[in-house]
Design brief:
heterodimer; A: about 100 residues; mainly alpha; about 75% helix; B: about 220 residues; Four Helix Bundle (Hemerythrin (Met), subunit A); 2 domains; about 0% strand
Chain lengths: ~100, ~220
């Protein structure tokens, strides 16, 4: 069997990205939207690591993926706090109910 | 890559894609969280197969161990029943699936039509990436990228020391002036650490218990 090039990894990254975008746009559950964001960030991370392996990008791609992981953790903490506040105010986490700011 | 690595790659590639699709398809939040655990863990194995051992371990520790536990706590704290379903309609599901397939075709065909790796006739993208005017790729340097064992280099690059780029700079005869050193990541590291502190304080402030308002 021949060695695996970057294209299968990039295809997996594309699958993660598309699934994350679809998850973000179609889920009505707020936690589901959060999971879609995590999927998109993982697709980007996989692309970073792939290019750090197969191109002269080298270690910089791994450093950037570490930053992405840390910022995703921070984003999940804040988004979860917002979701808890939303649940306290609305007694549901359906994002379609958060329409009080419409003009 | 040997045969075992190739088999592992296809196994965990299938697990990653299947987990991602089932996160999209499932309507149950708890099952979505489990599929997300599967996806993120398989992605960590893919990172390890790509030679990024420290990033793979960090993915397991921070994502699967930290962020996913946080999300599961969010599911537990916001669920009104044991298996909460907030359903979308079936027409929405069909439409979004159709759009997703088209979108995936566009992205995947674009990405895979580029020849990223150098081939024999020199048509790849990889040799055209410039690292900066004074830099070439260090041949036989500190540690080749595909060997793994990146922990020490990552730690040094967070201290703005780059042995993976700079180790063989002095022996190049073409330049008469002193070689410039590569940039590291000390300032972004400090910024991200302060950012994490501020974010955690802010999240604890936002999520504190308050009296529930009447609806």
């Amino acid at each position: 069997m021949q060695a695996i090039g970057p294209n299968p990894f990039l295809f997996i990254g594309a699958v993660l990205f598309v699934c994350g975008v679809i998850c973000m746009t179609t889920k009505r559950n707020g936690i589901g939207v959060l999971m879609g964001v995590e999927l998109v960030l993982n697709g980007a991370n996989l692309n970073f690591i792939t290019f750090s392996r197969f191109t002269p990008l080298g270690l910089d791609g791994q450093v950037f993926s570490l930053f992405v992981i840390v910022l995703a953790a921070a984003e999940a903490a804040v988004a979860l706090a917002i979701a808890l506040n939303f649940y306290n105010n609305h007694l549901t986490i359906d994002v379609d109910r958060g329409d009080e700011l419409h003009g | 890559m040997n045969t075992a690595e190739i088999i592992l790659f296809w196994l965990f590639a299938a697990l990653t894609c299947g987990g991602a699709v089932s996160v999209c398809v499932s309507q149950n939040v708890v099952r979505m969280a489990f599929a997300l655990v599967l996806t993120l863990g398989s992605t960590a194995v893919l990172f390890l197969l790509l030679g990024a051992d420290f990033v793979g371990a960090t993915q397991l520790l921070v994502y699967v161990g930290g962020t996913l536990v946080l999300i599961v706590f969010g599911v537990m704290l916001t669920a009104t029943g044991p298996f909460t379903r907030i359903k979308s309609s079936a027409a929405d599901g069909i439409l979004s699936g159709l759009i997703g397939v088209i979108f995936l075709f566009i992205v995947a065909s674009t990405v895979t039509s580029v020849r990223w790796v150098d081939t024999d006739d020199g048509q790849g993208i990889a040799s055209k990436i410039t690292l900066g005017a004074h830099l070439t790729k260090a041949e036989g340097g500190f540690n080749p990228a595909q060997q793994g064992n990146t922990t020490r280099q990552l730690g040094l690059s967070f201290l703005s020391i780059r042995p993976d780029r700079d180790l063989n700079l002095g022996v190049r005869p073409a330049t008469s002036e002193k070689p410039k050193l590569s940039t590291g990541y000390l300032l972004p590291f400090e910024i991200v650490s302060v950012h994490l502190l501020v974010v955690l304080v802010g999240a604890a402030y936002l999520a504190r218990t308050k009296r529930r308002t009447k609806t």
